Amino acid sequence: MHNELEKQRRLRFRQLKQWKRLALEYLLITVAILLLVVGVYFFKFPNHFSFGGVTGVAVVLEALLSHSAATYTFIINMVLLVFGFLFLGKDFGLKTVYASVLTSVGLWAMELWFPMAAPLTEQPVLELIFAIFLPALSSAILFNIGASGGGTDILAMILKKYTTFSISAALFLVDFVIVLASCFVFDIQTGLFSLTGLLAKSLVIDNVIESINLCKAFMIVCDEPEPICRYICDELGRSATIYRAEGAYSHHKKTMILTVTKRGQAVQLRNFVRRNQPESFITIFNSSEIIGKGFRGLN
User: Fold this and answer.
1) Which residues pair with 284 in a beta bridge?
2) How does 85-94 read in b/e, with b if 16+ C-beta sit within 10 Å?
3) 120 by DSSP, 3-state: which?
4) Which of 119, 137, 168, 236 is the most buried (most CB within 10 A)?
5) For 80-135, how does the pLDDT look when each residue is reduced to its tens digit (9 = 90+)?
6) End-to-end distance of the chain based on CA atoms, in angstroms?
């Protein structure tokens, strides 16, 4: 009877943990889409920057046809969602649907609440920076939690399932054609700004993802490992691996502690070791990705 109650308690705990993780993921998706919408509506659309997927197509279509870029973004995203359901079926993620609909609704709401007839400033380079950085930060957050922003990502998922094309090359080619079209629809300056944005976007995404996942790895060579390990486990909530070592010159017996912490915890651990065992030898190095218990899951 006791074992059965314990199993039920553990099951409820796991379910609660899963729901909390799911709620956190959707909160992060919402924040990421908000960043995307602000970057696109306030900085990309008014300047006719046409790099990057669906919103880039919408910018060109707005100049050629009669409706706003937000309207074309909504239409294209809805069409792509239909294609996603048709070609991907159950493999088509709910997170992708949520992000795609939220993007379309968000741009429509911005157009309704904050109509814009001209760019915010007279500094196109400054606005290009925000038009690149905010959507790139949004994409980095989405990629980091295994979500998708919809749009041309749906095309990528379809290509991956039904063809042997290089997805990154195919999407870059589509984006490049859109940028090229902007040179003829608008002017060469707008086209060059769009090309700059296209080339810079992927670099910013990679750097932001690396910064989000950045951790600090420690190798601590000391004489008394117990206080340090106790601090790591009890105060920082981390664990460590202990190795028995020997000094190459003195041949004194040493202990090497290997542990990984978040960036904020790294300062605490470094200060603790320096304060309590100043004779210890500490090596600290950056790690862009840690996979395992307490960090990122293997999936």
Assistant:
1) 218
2) eebbeeebbe
3) coil
4) 137
5) 888 888 877 765 677 888 888 899 899 999 988 998 888 888 898 899 999 988 98
6) 35
Asked if residue 135 lies in contact with residue 103, where contact means CB atoms within 8 angstroms, the answer is: no
Distance CA 193, CA 178 (A): 13
CA-nearest of 211, 192, 254, 199 to 49 is 192
Cβ(256)–Cβ(220) under 8 Å?
Answer: yes
**Where do runs of H (alpha helix) occur along the chain?**
2-39, 53-64, 69-88, 94-113, 124-144, 152-162, 167-185, 188-213, 225-230, 263-276
Report long-range pairs for 67-72 (Cβ below 8 Å, ≥24 apart).
Answer: 68/111, 69/45, 69/107, 70/41, 70/45, 70/107, 70/108, 70/110, 70/111, 71/108, 71/111
Maximum C-alpha span of the chain: 81
Q: Do the beta carbons of residue 142 and residue 102 sit within 8 Å?
A: no
d(CA 130, CA 204): 11
15-65 pLDDT, tens digit each:
777 888 888 888 999 999 999 999 999 999 998 888 878 888 888 888 888
At CA 199, angle to CA 194 and CA 204, rounded to 5?
110
DSSP three-state, residue 238: coil
Residue-wise over 152-164: b if at least 16 C-beta within 10 A, else e?
bbbbbbbbeeeee
Query: From CA 184, how far away is CA 64, in angstroms rounded?
Result: 11
Question: Residue 216's Cα: distance from chain center in Å?
Answer: 19
Give the Cα separation of 2 and 169 in Å (integer): 58
Residue with the two structure tokens 């309207």: 71
Please check whether residue 218 is in contact with residue 231, taking contact to mean a CB–CB distance below 8 angstroms: no
Q: Say which amino acid occupies 39.
A: G
Provide the sign of the torsion angle of the four alpha carbons 24, 101, 115, 60, taken in this order. positive
DSSP string, 80-92: HHHHHHHHHGGGS
